[in-house]
Design goal:
The protein has about 450 residues and is α+β, with helices and mostly antiparallel strands. Helix content is about 50%, strand content about 10%.
Length: about 450
C-alpha cells in the first residue's frame, strides 16, 4: 500500500500542475475570453469588448508569469473533469505539431464535438486510416504542394471580377463590404459560378458555426441537412474550374466521404478573408511595406495567376499578429514524457496561438508588422509562428488560401491608396495591439489612376 501511494505521489509531482487558484485565473483571463469570442465564428460585440479590454495582452502577461513560475514545459491545469495542459514554449509547440497525429491526435475530443455540427466526417475529426485517406484527398483537391493551383487562371478571373465590383465607385471600405465580395469569391472558387449569389449556403454555414462555438450543444439537424443538400447539388452539377469538380472527379474510397470535406474549405476561407482585410489595414498604415507591395504588383497582368511572395507574407503576418484560430488543440493518445515528467494519455493539449505568436520573450518581432520574417526563413525556423499550424497537421489549403488572398489584395491595391479612418489605430511607431477588432476597421479609398 505504501509503495502504491508513493508511486501515485511521485506521478503527481512529475507534471507541473498549476494550483487551483492559478488554474482559475487562467480559466478566467485566457480560456473564457477565447471561448466567448467564438472559436469557430466570431461574435462582433465580444470581439469589440476584448479589444477595449486589451484582453490578449493581459492574457499574455499572465501566461508569461505562469511559465516563469511552473517552468517551460506543459503546465497542467487543475480540473476535476478533464486532464488539460497548456503548451507555452516554442520547443514544446514544435514537438506537439511534429508529433501529430501520434502521439498527439489532431482529432481532439472538444474539436470533434464542435466540428460535428457542420463537418462530422471531415479531415480534422478523423483518425487512423480515415485520416490518412482524407488527408490524401484534401491534398489532391487543394493542390497542397503547389503555390499556384491547377485552376489558378480561372480563380484569378473570378477574383478580378469580384474585386472590380467591390471597388467600383466606393470611397470607403469596411469589413461588411469586404466580406460580401469575399464570400462571392469563396463560393465561386469552391462551388462554382452558379453559387455566386447563393447567400443561403453561407448563412446556413454561419448558423452551424455559431452553434459549434458551444461544442457540446445539440445540433439542429434540419439546418445541417439543408446545408449538405446544397453542397451535394453543386457537386452533382459540378462546374469546370471549381473545387466541386475536383471533388466529383478525384479518386476516392469508402472512407473518403468527398462532399463531407467541403464544409472545412468554406469555413476556412472566411477567416482568411478577415486576415486579408487586416493585412490591407496594415499596408494602409505602414508606408514602407505599402511601397514594397505596390512595387510587387507594378506592371503585372493581374488577370493571370501570380505568385506574389511579399503579399503572401503580408497575409501570413496578419494571421500571426491576429490569429484566425485562437487555439490549436491536440489529445495525447498515450502517456508522454517531458524531460522525465509524464503527462497521462487522453490529456487535452492547448496551444494558445494569440500568446505564442505574440510572445516577445520568444519573438523579437512580436508586436511589429514584419512580413520579411516569412521571406528570409526567420518565421519558418521559429515554431512560435504557426499561422497555418505545422507538421503533419498543417493546413492542406495553405497555398490556395495564400494564392486567393494575395491575388485579391493585389487587385484592391492596384490603382488605389488607402488611409485608416476607423478602428484601433495601427502604426509602425508603436507596438501593434494584441487584440484587434476587424469589424471596426474602416479605410478611406483614393483612386490613383
Amino acid at each position: 500500500m505504501t509503495q502504491t501511494m508513493e508511486r501515485k505521489r511521485h506521478a503527481r509531482q512529475e507534471v507541473p500542475q498549476a494550483s487551483a487558484g492559478d488554474s482559475l485565473r487562467i480559466a478566467v483571463q485566457v480560456l473564457a475570453p477565447t471561448l466567448v469570442r467564438g472559436i469557430l465564428a466570431r461574435r462582433p460585440r465580444v470581439v469589440a469588448a476584448a479589444e477595449r479590454l486589451d484582453a490578449d495582452r493581459k492574457a499574455g502577461r499572465l501566461l508569461q508569469r505562469m511559465r516563469a513560475k511552473y517552468g517551460p514545459g506543459p503546465i497542467r491545469l487543475w480540473s476535476p473533469l478533464r486532464s488539460i495542459a497548456l503548451v507555452l514554449s516554442e520547443e514544446d509547440v514544435r514537438r506537439v505539431l511534429e508529433g501529430s497525429p501520434e502521439p498527439f491526435a489532431v482529432a481532439n475530443r472538444e474539436k470533434r464535438a464542435a466540428l460535428w455540427h457542420f463537418q462530422p466526417h471531415g479531415l480534422l475529426t478523423a483518425s487512423g486510416t480515415d485520416r490518412t485517406d482524407r488527408r490524401r484527398f484534401n491534398e489532391a483537391v487543394l493542390n497542397t504542394h503547389r503555390p499556384v493551383h491547377q485552376y489558378g487562371d480561372l480563380i484569378a478571373g473570378k477574383i478580378a471580377s469580384e474585386a472590380a465590383e467591390l471597388m467600383a465607385g466606393t470611397d470607403t471600405l469596411t469589413w461588411d463590404d469586404f466580406r460580401v465580395a469575399w464570400w462571392r469569391v469563396i463560393r465561386r472558387v469552391v462551388l462554382g459560378d452558379a453559387a455566386r449569389d447563393d447567400d443561403r449556403v453561407s448563412d446556413l454555414l454561419t448558423r452551424l458555426r455559431m452553434e459549434a462555438n458551444w461544442a457540446f450543444a445539440p445540433r439542429r439537424p434540419q439546418i445541417y441537412r439543408e446545408f449538405r443538400q446544397r453542397l451535394d447539388g453543386y457537386v452533382r452539377n459540378a462546374e469546370h474550374g471549381s473545387l466541386a469538380e475536383l471533388v466529383a472527379t478525384t479518386p476516392a474510397t469508402g472512407r473518403t466521404k468527398p462532399q463531407a470535406q467541403m464544409p472545412q474549405w468554406l469555413f476556412a476561407f472566411e477567416p482568411a478573408g478577415m486576415a486579408a482585410y487586416c493585412a490591407l489595414a496594415l499596408l494602409a498604415t505602414h508606408p514602407e511595406q505599402a511601397r514594397r507591395a505596390y512595387a510587387e504588383i507594378e506592371g503585372r497582368d493581374l488577370s493571370e495567376p501570380q505568385d506574389l511572395p511579399f503579399l503572401r507574407a503580408c497575409v501570413q503576418e496578419s494571421v500571426r499578429l491576429w490569429p484566425t484560430t485562437l487555439a490549436i488543440l491536440r489529445d495525447t493518445t498515450t502517456a508522454t514524457d517531458w524531460d522525465g515528467r509524464t503527462l497521462p494519455a487522453h490529456t487535452a493539449l492547448l496551444i494558445p496561438t494569440a500568446f505564442v505568436q505574440r510572445d516577445e520573450q520568444t519573438l523579437h518581432y512580436a508586436d511589429t508588422f514584419a512580413p520579411d520574417v516569412w521571406l528570409d526563413g526567420t518565421a519558418q525556423r521559429n515554431w512560435a509562428a504557426i499561422p497555418f499550424s505545422g507538421g503533419p497537421g498543417e493546413c492542406p489549403g495553405r497555398n490556395l488560401v495564400l494564392l486567393t488572398t494575395s491575388q485579391f489584395l493585389a487587385h484592391l491595391l492596384a490603382g488605389h491608396a488607402y488611409r485608416q479612418t476607423g478602428g484601433q489605430r495601427l502604426s509602425p511607431d508603436q507596438p501593434l495591439p494584441r487584440t484587434l477588432n476587424p469589424f471596426g476597421l474602416r479605410l478611406d479609398v483614393e483612386r490613383t489612376r
